[in-house]
Amino acid sequence: MAETEPPQAETLRLFFALWPDDATRDTLNRTGKWLHQHWGGRRMRADTLHITLAFLGSTPVDRLDTLFACADAVAVEPFELVLDQAGYWRHNRIGWLGASETPLPHHELVGALNTRLQEEGFPVDTRPHVPHVTLLRNSAGGEVQKCTPVRWAASDFVLVTSRTEPSGAQYEVIRRWPLA
Ligand code: ATP
Ligand code: MG
């Protein structure tokens, strides 16, 4: 007789992120094209470009309301990120775009979110946060390079679902919170 599996709670793979507007996305994508010429690898699709603020991973859907409340409680003013250097992580062969100077509100946003998430028992990443846009995967990389600065006006943040499909990661913004 076949055994019946116990019912599994439905889950979503989730993360909080800064999500670029169309013009910023376009500029990021052009920077990705430039970096690819130097470092090679696989370029990220334009529609996937983002900055992760807090990665939650597999999360039961019945925790969504608590997650929304965590984000509701965040009060941080809008800010501008200036992404002016390309970096490379050897351990995961990722080429990325980052900032030589991170504005205080960005740190406040990451800190406030992670504090709320931790208080509600979500697993949070305790490593120091490096704001970055992943541009290249499986890249040979190189030395940190200065690049034409990409100005990113962050006026909101989002909660995103991530699904792995044969064509690569598929992200979908499920909710948006204004910075104020
Ligand atoms: P895939 O894993 O399918 O190759 P992906 O890495 O783009 O694709 P996710 O693993 O769902 O998709 O990650 C979503 C975002 O969260 C990415 O920006 C990723 O770099 C970041 N991320 C993933 N795992 C962690 C983690 N453990 N800590 C911090 N950020 C993470
Ligand atoms: Mg991943």
Question: What's the short story on this structure?
Answer:
This protein is an alpha+beta fold and 180 residues long. It has one domain: Alpha-Beta Complex (Cyclic Phosphodiesterase, Chain: A), CATH 3.90.1140.
Q: Regions with pLDDT < 50 over 5+ consecutive residues?
A: none
Overall mean pLDDT stands at 95
Task: Classify the fold: give the CATH topology.
Answer: Cyclic Phosphodiesterase, Chain: A
- In which range does the helix fraction lie? 10-25%
N-to-C series of helices and strands:
EHEEHEEHEEEE
CATH class: Alpha Beta
Which structural class fits the helix and strand makeup?
Answer: alpha+beta
Number of separate helices: 3
Bound molecules: adenosine-5'-triphosphate, magnesium ion
Whole-number total of structural domains: 1
Reported CATH architecture: Alpha-Beta Complex
Largest sheet: 5 strands, antiparallel
Strand line-up across the major sheet: 2-6-5-4-7
Head-to-tail CA distance between termini: 59 Å
Report the strand count: 9
What gyration radius follows from the Cα positions, in whole Å?
A: 17 Å
Any idea what the shape is?
Answer: globular
The CATH homologous superfamily: Cyclic phosphodiesterase
Q: What portion of residues belong to β-strands? A: 35-45%
